[in-house]
Amino acid sequence: MRDRIRIARRTAAVLVALVAAGGATTVPAVAAPTGITRAAAAPAPTGLAYSYDAATEQVTVRWDPKDPADTVTTGYREGGCSGPSTADGPCFVRASGPLLDGNSFTFRLAAGRTMYFRVYAENAAHLTTGSAILTVTT
Predict the structure, then answer these.
(1) Whole-angstrom Cα distance, residue 40 to residue 18?
(2) What is the per-residue pLDDT across 22-51, written as a single tens digit (0 to 9) for each?
(3) Distance of CA 138 to the CA centre of its chain
(4) Model-level pTM?
């Protein structure tokens, strides 16, 4: 009962404020911020491929080296996906830890498994651009 009375009082206070404002029900316009520059997106990694060493159960994922003319990419992050297409579910970026600064990474994966990976290029503003999804089957 107290909650209903409290809500009724708040509603009445809002109505009184609207009447006092001449019935205005619109939000006043806010000036757009000026001087904001957006960081350029890092180009998506290309040429993803993998190799598998069955003796050590090690997968190495590689992609094309960073173009020397690319001044935007500060590093790379690996990520996993729910399936071979974004229609199969979301992809996730490993957001913690240091950036990968080369063009490969290695991890262990038991034989007979399938996983889906993406590599993300990151810029100085920490915005990422993802590669195509790579299907890794051991």
Answers:
(1) 44
(2) 655 555 666 666 766 677 899 999 999 999
(3) 27
(4) 0.71
